[in-house]
Amino acid sequence: MQMVIEHEYPASQWEIDGRRVVDFALDAYGRLELSIRASRPCKIHVAIGEVLTATRRLNATPGGYRYYAETELDVIAGEMRVFFPIPEHVAPNPALRKCYPPPEAGGEIAPFRYVEYDVFDGELSPIRHNIHAPFDDNAADFHCDNERLNRIWALCKHTIKATTPFGLYIDGNRERLPYEGDAYINALGHYCCDADYRIAHDTISRLLETPTWPTEWSLVMPMIVLDYLKYSGDKKSVQEWLDAGLEKKLLLDDLDPVTGLLRSVPYGNRTRDIVDWPISERDGYEFGTANFVPNAYLVWAFRAMAMLTQDGHWSNRANELLHQMEKRFWRNNGLFGDSLESSHTSLHIAMFALCFDIARPEARPAFCKFMESRGMACSVYGAQFLLDACYENGMEEHAFRLMTATGLRSWQNMLDKGATITMEAWDDSCKPNQDWNHAWGAAPANIIPRRLCGIRPFETDRFYFDPHPQGLRSFHLKAPSRFGSFLVDFDGKGYDIQIPEGTEVAYLGPRPSEKSIFLPPGTHHIPLLKENQA
Questions:
Q1: Mean of per-residue pLDDT scores for the chain
Q2: Please, what is the angle between helix 380-392 and helix 364-374, to 10°?
Q3: Using an 8 Å Cβ cutoff, are 75 and 43 in contact?
């Protein structure tokens, strides 16, 4: 895939302490070209980075993997053009197969937003070569009457675009390699921001060839493939992946021969089960010989395999495992325990039990109540499943509050700290070694179109329209698909939806009758019942 190189100029700049600070407004991967004119030879110090200090200087010690690099240039009298020498990226684990800059970049690239250099007797014009995959900026749009949510949408949409220059969904600049857990959220966000499925395809192929270590990351692969099929319609590739051994991702050799549960397998000095990451974001999860969360993922994986293969064998496996989970993880408090040996219930138990349809209908109110009581006691990765669980179980208002919150664990906090690509964690204090360019933190890029606005595929050529606008008085959505754009407008009294040719929509929202409404291509108006109007 040929990468795009955009030449960008500063959005603003200012002088402080004999230095000039240049702001490109948004963080992006790229290179820095410097056009310099000087009246005499001199040396100038130049630096690039992602984080400012409180005094609006470029932060030379941002900590963790927040990017910073500096150099000293020998400037000649007259005019010169040079590229800032970006040091070669060094991965923390060189044994892992990282991604490299595309050849068209012309050298090493790095994520940066700011440039800082000495004020000198001359002129310096910085040009950022922003490098990313082809991306249609106009393919997706969202705006509503809540300005905070508008800013969060813009943050997450830019994240999806800005993190594409390696042609695969990477986990951020620290490691620069694909992980299945990251790819699940990244792909969904990409589908909702642009109808281009090449990076998703290549990432799936790479992960089937080069898997990573966590139990749940392996088990998420069938759902990644299923989502790819629903959005892209690419049955040929999906069959190739099935033939190549997608089934191997189900870890069937790790099942207990007596209970059928997925056992906890050691990995170094810890278990291979991950639940959530970093460790501090697990809400006190108590691990055991078999853990609820990876078994919930396995139920999800069996169901995905059933849909991919149209083989009822996988549905039977899901039901058998579900029976064992209900038998062995159920506790007297009306909830599941973290593990076979534990009576503790973390937020993750509730959100995965609801998101993966593990909890029985009569038990769901208790899980919902517990989930609401725990707030955002999970990571930016876990937030994807927490929000999905909320929208699937009548907790739309809670989901909206979580998405638009202002505390430490919020997307607003990322914005307040100066990030313009989502962070790896909610805050530097939550993960000191984090980077500020991690697309697994961009769940609203897919939650807003798929859940709040309600446009998502359930077959390769059919979509749900299942809007949950609680918290808003109005919104406009443009959602891309391989058929063309969906347009949805909500004014508090009803919806206007435009459906592209080649597909149809099942409307699941409040309606004048209890019958399902299937909408063909074209423009439709759906009035709300008075009790459902904002």
A1: 96
A2: 140
A3: yes
Query: Cα dist. 112→30, 48, 117, 534 in Å?
Result: 8, 6, 14, 42
What does the pLDDT average to over 263-275?
A: 90
Read off the amino acid at residue 24.
F
Nearest to 406 by CA among 164, 37, 152: 152
CB 506 within 8 A of CB 487: no
Banded pLDDT at 269 (limits 50, 70, 90): confident
Q: Which of helix, strand or coil describes residue 233?
A: coil
Scanning the structure block, which residue is given the tokens 């409404």?
517
Compute CA 124 distance to the chain's CA centroid, rounded to the nearest angstrom: 37
Q: Which residue has tokens 């994240």?
A: 159
Any residues with CB less than 8 A from the CB of 284 and at least 6 apart, and which?
344, 346
Q: Distance between CA 262 and CA 293 in Å, rounded? A: 10
Residue 534 pLDDT class (50, 70, 90 cuts): low
As a whole-number percent, the residues of the chain with pLDDT over 90 amount to 96
- Burial level of 520, CB count in 10 A (0-12/13-18/19+)? exposed
User: What is the bridge-based pairing of β-strands 122-132 and 4-8?
Assistant: antiparallel
Token pair belonging to 38: 């000087």
| Euclidean distance between CA atoms 516 and 312, whole angstroms | 27
- The pTM score is 0.97
- Amino acid letter at 152? I
